[in-house]
Amino acid sequence: MPTPFPNSAAHNIFGTTIFDGVQAQKGYPLNAMCFSFNSQHNRERFVANEAAYMQSFGLNDDQSLAIRERDVLGLIRSGGNVYYLAKFAGILGLDVQDLGALQTGMSKADFKNKLVQAGI
Questions:
Q1: Are 59 and 42 in contact (CB under 8 A)?
Q2: Cβ-count burial 28-47 (b if 16+ within 10 Å, e if not)
């Protein structure tokens, strides 16, 4: 069982941001905002005025910049959880496979092929 301590081997996976308690706390405003996108009304409010909507959830500068730039890796580094980020991605017409492709620097087709080859 992996140890919960930040310096453990489980936290040293090259190129990977581990979503742990520290990341969860850092990303709480971002993830709360993304969770709000379950509501069509909130998606419409976000599209109408992204800056005001982000401010209403208290996103920090890094999170706001990553949202504006549609920077998936930046959102993850800022504490974003991929399951909540999928709600944001939906506004952009993206799905979880698109997010995976963006995270890995692959095309969506290549990413899907990699999943199939891995039996996932």
A1: no
A2: ebbbebbbbbeeeebbebbe
Question: Is 0.90 surpassed by the pTM of this model?
Answer: no
98, 88 in Cβ contact below 8 A?
Answer: no
Nearest-5° Cα angle at 76, 33 to 98: 90
Domain with 25, as residue range(s), is: 18-92
Spatial distance between the Cα atoms of 25 and 31, rounded to a whole number of angstroms: 10
The total number of structural domains that make up the chain: 1
Does residue 86 form part of some domain? yes
Higher pLDDT, 8 or 106: 106
